[in-house]
């Protein structure tokens, strides 16, 4: 089980990278795609979605960095921190990537597009090193 303490934060970091790429793609798309003569990014609802994406990413980053920092400080076990980082980062990345697909419209599901690929990739990360429900049990047992 101590091996999972090491690998769960790495899965969280991978999910974080996918989410950041999805946000970058969404920013580019919404700034360049026009609707009724104005960039999609000018719409308040789109701005709200982008803000939520950034918030999810920053919260996931902080949990991931905390788990890595605890391990670097020599903590013998980081089971709770690792499970929290892995759970939040993968679930947040799923939300961010799903929103990116929405913001891309039909292009978001076009085979070969970046966000379509991210959408498929994040699913595996939600399973590696214990599915999300397993992480919830690990966290609950540590309380």
Could you give a short description of this structure?
Its cofactor is FAD. This protein is an all-alpha fold and 143 residues long. 76% of the residues lie in helices and 3% in strands.
Any descriptors?
143 residues, mainly alpha, two-stranded antiparallel sheet, 5 helices, 2 strands, 76% helix
Write structural notes for this entry.
It comes from Rubellimicrobium mesophilum DSM 19309. Keywords: FAD, Flavoprotein, Oxidoreductase. Pfam families: Acyl-CoA_dh_1. This is Acyl-CoA dehydrogenase family protein. Its cofactor is FAD. The chain is built from five helices and two strands. It is mainly α and 143 residues long. The protein is elongated, with a radius of gyration of 17 Å. 76% of the residues lie in helices and 3% in strands. It has a two-stranded antiparallel sheet. The longest helix has 31 residues. It has a single domain, classed as Butyryl-CoA Dehydrogenase, subunit A, domain 3, CATH 1.20.140.10. A hairpin with a 2-residue loop joins strand 1 and strand 2. Helix 1 runs parallel beside helix 3 and helix 1 runs antiparallel to helix 4.
